[in-house]
Write a structure and sequence with these properties.
single chain, alpha+beta, Double Stranded RNA Binding Domain, 5 helices
Length: 133
């Protein structure tokens, strides 16, 4: 993953932010929307693209565009910085290959021990019940 190439491929759009803020919110476009076209990216290898498409399938549109936005601050520049940071951390998480789970071995002795403990607890609880005639 080449961050400098990917950074050049990002496209930004500014939109009016929603929420509180009164006159400032109504006249200033402080929300930043980041668009990234995964399939046409030169900064990602083929295997990285496949991993991203698989792991971030719920965040990618049908056109293959990863879209993220930030509107938490009043500053457009700060929102742009925040969305870039979030974007690269999301890409880093999506390209991590998880290790396959190793099956735990079945231990007969431990299984017998837990069954014995359950039986003992069950008998203890049964002894507390009132007898019915």
């Amino acid at each position: 993953m080449n961050k400098t190439i990917i950074f050049r491929e990002l496209s930004f759009k500014t939109v009016r932010s929603s929420g509180n803020g009164g006159q400032h919110i109504n006249k200033v476009a402080s929300k930043v929307v980041l668009n990234f076209f995964i399939q046409t990216s030169q900064g990602l290898s083929k295997s990285e693209k496949e991993l991203i498409l698989k792991n971030l399938s719920n965040k990618i549109s049908c056109n293959g565009v990863l879209r993220m936005s930030a509107q938490s601050t009043r500053s457009q520049h700060r929102n742009k910085e925040l969305v870039i940071i979030r974007f690269f951390s999301l890409l880093a998480q999506a390209t991590i290959i998880s290790k396959p789970r190793r099956k735990s071995l079945y231990n007969k002795k431990l299984h017998q021990k837990s069954l014995k403990a359950k039986k003992h607890l069950s008998e203890k609880k049964d002894s507390r019940k009132k007898l019915r005639f």
